[in-house]
Each structure stands twice: as C-alpha cells, then as structure tokens.
Amino acid sequence: MSAALGIGAPAFAQTPTSAAPQPQDLAALRATIDQLRQQLDTLQQKVTALESAAGQAPAAPGQPPAQAAGQPQPPAATVEVPQGAAGAGGPGGALPVYGNTSALSKIFNPDIAVIGNFVGAAGTNAVAPLPALRLNEAEVSYQAVVDPYARADFFLSASPEGLEIEEGFLTLPTLPGGLLMKVGKMKAQFGKVNTLHSHNTPWVDTPLPMANLLGGDEGLNDSGLSVSKLIMNPALFLEATGEVYNGDNALFKSYKRSDLTYVGRLRGYRDLTEGTNLDLGTSVAYGHNDASPDSTTRVIGVDATFRYRPLRRAIYRRFIGRTELFWSRRGDPVADVSAFGAYVSGEYQFAQRWFSGARVDWSDRATDASLQDRSGSLLLTYWPSEFSQVRGQYRRTLYADGPVANEFLFQFLFSIGAHGAHVF
Amino acid sequence: MKRTSTIVALLFAALALAAVPARAALNVVAATQDLASIAQEVGGDKIKVTALAKGYQDPHFVEAKPSFVLTLNKADLLIVVGRDLEIGWLPPLITQSRNARIQPGAAGYLDPSTSAKILELPTGQLTRAMGDVHPLGNPHYWLDPENGKRVAQAIAEKLSAMDAANAPYYRQREQDFEARVTAAIQRWKSQMAPYKGLKVITYHRSWANFADAFGLDVVGYVEPKPGIPPTPQHTLDVINAMKAQHIKIIIVEPYFDSKTPNSIASNTGGKVLVLPPSVGGVPEASDYFKLFDYTIGLLTSAIKDTGAK
After folding, report:
1. In terms of domains, do B166 and B32 share one?
2. Long-range contacts (CB closer than 8 Å, 24 or more residues apart) made by A136-141
3. Higher confidence at residue A19 or residue B109?
4. Nearest residue on chain B to A271, judged by CA atoms?
5. Are residues B36 and B178 in the same domain?
6. Which of A76, A231, A312 is nearest residue B17 as measured by Cβ atoms?
7. pLDDT per residue as tens digits for the range B3-27
8. Model pTM?
9. Most buried pick, A41, A128, A406, B115, via CB within 10 A?
C-alpha cells in the first residue's frame, strides 16, 4: 500500500510546480486525482478483505488457550491493564518479546524447584547402617499446566544410586463424572507414608513396616493409572481410589503382561471442630511376587490421622497424631506368610519454628513372620524458614536378627525455586 | 485372589456412583471473608457465598483440608485473592475439586487482583534472602477501599456473564455498593485526616494499601523480613527507631504472637494495636464496611490515647 502511494505521490507533487495552470492542466489534474481515488478505493477494499480473513484465522500464538469444551468464554478477550496499576509498575501494555520462540519458552516454562536432602548418622547399626554423611537425594520438580484439560508433575530424584524418575504423571482434573485421573509413574495411594516424598515425612527415616512389608523406603511406586472419585454424602469427605500398575516394583513382580498390581483405597475425612479433624483410610494392594510366578502378595492397610491446629495460632501450634497398620499375606510355594507391622507417631509444634516428635514402630518380616523388628524414636525439628529444615532423630532399633542399634540421625532439607503447595 | 478382585470391583463400583447436585442460586466460593463480603454485596440473594479462610487466620498458611475440596466441588465461581497469596494451599485444592468450572483460566475462576491497585511490585532481582517475598506485589490490596470497588466491579462483571438474566440486578447492586463505599471513604478519610503522615510500625507487610489509602507512614516491621520471625537485634533496631522518631503505634494482625510487639511497646511507651486485616478477624468486623469502621475507630482512639503525632 505504501509503495502504491509512493508511486502516486511524486506524480501529484510535480503537477502544481508548473506555473500558471491551464484549463487542460486542471482537467488532467482532476483525471489524475480521480485515478488516485480509484486506486485508493481498490486498495481499501483489498485491506478490508485481508483484515476479515485474518479475523477468521486460528487464535494468534499470544492468545490464551481456549476454554474447556462447553465453557462459555467471558467476553473480554483483551488483556486488562489494571486501573491504577500501570503507574505502580503493573502491566502497562504488551509483554516484552525478546524473540518469538525464546520468549514463549520462558513464559510457559514449568515451575522448577530443587530440594536437597542431606542425611547424617552417628552411633552403631550392624543390620541396616546408613553412611555417616550423605546427600541422600536431590529432587528436581517440574510442574505446570499442560492445556485446559490437564496438568503435569515430574519429580526426578538424583541420589548416590543414580538418577531416576521418582514420579512423572499427568493429572486430568476436569473429567466428566467428577473423576480425577492420573496417568504415569507415581506413588501408589496406599496409606499415608507411601504417598509422601522422603522430604515430606515427619522423620529422617521411614518406619519399619515400610521397609519390611511395602518393599523398602521407596515404597509402592510404579507406572500405572489412577482414578478417584468423591462419594458425595452429607456426613463426611469420602474418596474412593482405584489404581492399576505395571506390576514390577519393589514389592511386586510381573512375569507376564497380565501380572498387574492393583491398589484400592477408601478415605474418609471429617472436621471435628474448626481446628481439629480426623482422617481415616483403608487400602489394599495386590499383585504377583518374586517367590514364584503363581505366588501373590496382598497387603491391607488401615490408617488414622488426627490433626489439631488452632486457626488463630496456626503458625505457632499444631499437633498431628498418626498411625498406620499393615497386614501382609505373601504367597509362597513352600508356605504362605502372614505378617503384621505398624507405627504410631506424634508431632507437636511448640514454637513458630520448633517441632518435637516421637514414634514407635514394629514389623514382622514379610518373608518370615517369626522375625519382628522393633524401634522407637525421638525427634526435634527446627525450621529456619519455610524453605529449609534441620532435624535430629534419636533411634533405638531392636532387630530380630542382630544387636540393638542406637543411632543419632540428622538431616538438612533445603529447597530452592518455586514455592510448592503443601498437600494435606 | 478372588476376594481381592471383589474388593477392587467394589471400589470401581463405588467410583461409578455419581450424584449430580442440583443448583439454584449461583454457588460462589471466596478464598477469604473479605472477598465473600464484597461478593455478597454484589450478588445479593441471587448467590450463595462461602469463604474458605477465616478472617482471624493467616491467609498465607491455611491448611488444604479435604472439607474444602467438597466446598470447591460444588462451586460455580471461585474468587481468589491472587498475587500468590494462596499459593501454599489453594492450587492442590482446585486440582482435587474435580470441578472443571473453577480451574484457573476457566469461566468460573476470578482473580480480581488483576484490576486492583497493587503496591510493592518488586523491581530488580528477587531472592529468598529477602524472606518470603511476594513476586507479584503486596497481596493485601483489599485494605484500600478503592480496591474494594474494583473488586466489586470485577465480581459484577463475572456474575453478569455467568447469569445474564440477572445482569441488571448485579449492576445495580454493584453501583449501590460503590456509592456507599465512596461515601464511607469520605467519612474514614476525615476521621484519619488529622493524623496524615503518622509513622507506625506493623508486624507483617499487611497494611501497605491501608496506609496508602489513609495516609499512614509504615516505617518499619516487627518481622525483620516477610515471614521471618522477630530477632533480638531487629527488635532492638525497631525500639531505637521508634524512640528516635517518636513512633507510638504498633499494628499487629490477630494471628501473630503479641509477645515481641508488647515488649517493644513497653520499651518505647508505645501501644500495641491488634487490628484485623480481614473481615471476620474480630467479631465486630463482620462485613467490608465494618472492617474499616472497626480498624479506623480503634486506630484513631489509640492515636489520641498515646498522643502520637
């Protein structure tokens, strides 16, 4: 368009320079003007046509993704510049663009955080000794919304054993029928401790039944599919979860494709007062084990958590009492083994940054129920801030097949990056 | 094996039991009682409002209780404070709510902070060495009644879009609310006018917008950095600053320990004022208007008592 005008303009500009305009000159001038008008009209029509075509094109890359199907979109599609905020440094127009692709990748980067888990141990333990000093784990998390229908969470765990995908799953929170679905590698919804990352437990270690009956400190963590649903009722929060896993994990073994692991959980929760609540659950896990291709293991768990946190003093006081009971029945060609394990634990926050705790735990061995390990712990935790934590744990363990272990464990936890929300 | 399959089958059967709740009035859930109060003003009897966090609770540290999941599951509209105030508890609740209507970006999700005047927007590099800083600015913006009007406008717009039949009703109620706030602002400002520029200390950075609206000068905080508990050295610095600048008023939110503020006050002849930063923070602050009536009433009488200038 500017090129066309550029060609037309000099012709127009030259005309008035000729001295004493003659009638034929005027006529020529009129003709030129008419010609230019026509050219302009044609151009205008072309521009209008182009503009309307652009309007029907798919959304520009900078526009927010469309709403979920069936969601009415609010009429305002433009970015609102907050009233009064512009002067205070708020968004005052377009976002800075440093180059298309790089700007896009920055804007849509997931939330990234790294959590360091440093554990030290002193004292004696002949059965399951921990190293004196060790960076147990560096956990890297990447979390973001995928599209209007899903979000994704990745937790990569780097430890002295190597780098592994601790969890990596897709969550579909907007499925019809009020279902919440997760697909990927994840911690099975079995009880309470099994669902927690090592830096979220209230102890330096994990309780004995985890190691003896749920396959190790890592617990039940596998690739699979999880569906859960709220069962609406007037009395309490009730959630049912059904999960299917590949079947090759610390607890189960898959000999063929159909040897899957099944996990089911029913969880009930109720506020007792505004500051106290009770959380109850029962879980079951079932799959084939490593004794023989025909042997199966079934673990049933029951968990109860009582929480007290006065709302007015929420940052200074809280008490959590928790217990979990595990019943394992492990099939074996020689003889089936029925084993039991449990822990009872309490944590009390007595100042803004200080927590004390105690735990007793005991468990039979899954492969030999006549062997029972027992242990007791006392804990003290200090939070310099929300993002770091120092913890000490005195632990006395009576192993069924070894000498008594008296240990002092300590832990430094530190987190950088995005502020992750604390799952209840 | 058979028994286990039965259990699994029963669990899946339980999953299939879906109850679709019937709805009449729009079900609005607000993250705080402040937003609930404004939403009620706009929505009148056409909406049913529930607040998640109580006014006497620190809104940064709310527990993501499953009972909130049930509340959110039934919501048609979720109104959040925004500016990352609820980052520590609300996102997992929204994910677990199984409610497509209120997911961030969906039609039933409203963050009115996008149209409010936000203070303390950080410039330059941010690190956590500065404490628990809010990278998106100070989220306590509702404490400027002008922002209350902006929030009401945003809510009215959203409600009108969701419930077009009642749009004139929402618009009329919103205009009425704005008129009453404008009148109240005049009253509150004239109450505070004699003390313009008065220097105060606050516990947390909750009062930036309040100070901006009513001409207070917040010169220091009991917390050395946001979210970091008081340290002896910092407390001493605050005492010295108060003595040097003749500061008499220490404003403390109801959910903080008043031990350190009390010891500062006794060392400086100042006065500790427990002021609710939110509706519901004390029983007297039962709605958005009474919140300011109460705080300004308490503040002005304390200023008179201490002879602060």
Report:
1. yes
2. A136/A160, A136/A198, A137/A198, A137/A199, A138/A114, A139/A114, A139/A115, A139/A166, A139/A197, A139/A199, A140/A112, A140/A113, A140/A114, A141/A111, A141/A112, A141/A113, A141/A114, A141/A115, A141/A417, A141/A418, A141/A420
3. B109
4. B67
5. yes
6. A231
7. 555 555 544 544 444 333 434 799 9
8. 0.80
9. B115
Report the range out of A46-60, B123-137, B291-305 with the highest average pLDDT.
B291-305
Residue A341 within any structural domain of the chain: yes
DSSP string, B164-211: GGGHHHHHHHHHHHHHHHHHHHHHHHHHHGGGTT-EEEESSTT-HHHH
Asked if the Cβ–Cβ distance from A227 to B15 is below 8 Å, we say: yes
Lowest mean pLDDT among A9-13, A33-37, B182-186, B259-263: A9-13
Task: State the count of interchain CB pairs (< 8 A) between A and B.
Answer: 191
pLDDT tens digits, one per residue of A33-79: 777 777 777 667 666 665 555 444 433 333 433 334 344 444 433 34
Band the pLDDT of A106: cuts 50, 70, 90.
Answer: confident
- Considering only residues A367 and B134, tell me which one the structure prediction assigns the higher pLDDT: A367
Q: In terms of CA atoms, which chain B residue is nearest residue A298?
A: B4
CA distance A68 to A422: 27
Answer whether A217's CB lies under 8 Å from A161's CB. Answer: no
- Report the gap between the CA of A167 and the closest CA in chain B (Å): 17
> Touching check for B236 and chain A: CB below 8 Å?
no
For residue A381, give how far its alpha carbon lies from the nearest alpha carbon of chain B (Å). Answer: 16
Q: Which domain holds residue B247?
A: 194-306
CA angle B251, B257, B258 (to 5 degrees): 50
How large is the ipTM?
A: 0.85
Whether residue B132 sits in one domain with residue B224:
no
**Would you give the DSSP letter of residue A401?**
T
Coil, helix or strand for A10? Answer: helix
Nearest by CB to A83, from B7, B115, B128: name it. Answer: B115
**B281-297 pLDDT, tens digit each:** 999 999 999 999 999 99
With respect to residue B11, please indicate whether it lies within any of the assigned structural domains. no
Residues of B within 8 A of A265 (CB-CB) are 11
CATH classification of the domain holding B244: 3.40.50.1980
Q: Any CB–CB contact under 8 A between B11 and chain A?
A: yes
Q: List, as ranges, residues 49-108 from A with C-beta within 8 Å of B.
A: 64-65, 67-68, 71-76, 80, 82-85, 88-90
**B200 and B172: one domain?**
no
Answer with the one of B138, B156, B186 that is the final residue of a domain.
Answer: B186
- Print the domain residue range for A387: 174-417
**Structural domain total, chain B:** 2
Residues of chain B in contact with residue A68, where contact means CB-CB under 8 angstroms, are: 100, 103, 106
Check CB contact of A313 with chain B, cutoff 8 Å. yes
